[in-house]
Design goal:
A hairpin with a 5-residue loop joins strand 4 and strand 5. With 179 residues, this protein is α+β, with helices and mostly antiparallel strands. The strands form two sheets. Strands 1-5-4-3 form a four-stranded antiparallel beta sheet. The protein has a two-stranded parallel sheet with strand order 2-6. Helix 1 packs antiparallel against helix 2.
């Protein structure tokens, strides 16, 4: 695949040089030549900066964790370092995820939402929203959804871990004695 990408890049540069020289040969206007150069630069890159800015805007305005109700569970549902053990917690709570790959096809942004639901009551305890930006159209075409960046506050797509940490808390010792 890398060979074909390199071949396509070489063909694109050769085509650009041919057209720019032809414009220079048939037109005395330097402006026409510069417009052609700009067009060949913008064709593969036009959506990178607006897509990045849109992704950042979405992260700030719509992304993040919303806690509707925090719950306390036994300390056995936590790892040694104090983080919630998501595998064990799935015995008590459902983790529901929706991914909208077509959220912004123009700027190659995917919306990923997860929520924690109490299995006994069906109550939604919290929700987390993250946006994945897949770069410009070339990157999205060549690598698809394999190459993406997430909201800066959730590096490595860790929005679900943040939600678990904010929704689930260990019961204090005084609460266990009162039971």
């Amino acid at each position: 695949m890398g060979f074909f990408v390199l071949l396509g890049l070489i063909a694109y540069v050769v085509l650009a040089k041919f057209i720019i020289r032809a414009i220079g040969k048939y037109s005395e206007s330097k402006a026409a030549k510069y417009v052609a150069i700009m067009a060949f630069v913008l064709i593969p890159t036009w959506d990178i900066i607006p897509g990045y800015l849109y992704h950042e805007h979405l992260c700030k305005t719509e992304g993040g964790v919303k806690v509707f109700k925090a719950v306390e569970v036994d300390k056995t549902y936590f790892l040694a370092d104090g983080r919630p053990d998501e595998e064990k917690l799935r015995n008590l709570f459902n983790w529901q995820t929706t991914t909208d790959r077509a959220f912004s096809e123009m700027f190659h942004v995917t919306k990923n939402q997860g929520s924690i639901v109490d299995k006994q009551t069906g109550e939604r305890l919290g929700a987390a929203t993250d946006f994945w930006h897949h770069g410009g159209w070339i990157n999205a075409t060549l690598f698809g959804y394999l190459s993406s960046s997430t909201c800066p506050q959730y590096p490595h797509h860790s929005v679900s871990s943040s939600l678990w940490q904010q929704v689930v808390r260990p019961k204090s010792d005084s609460q266990r004695e009162g039971e």
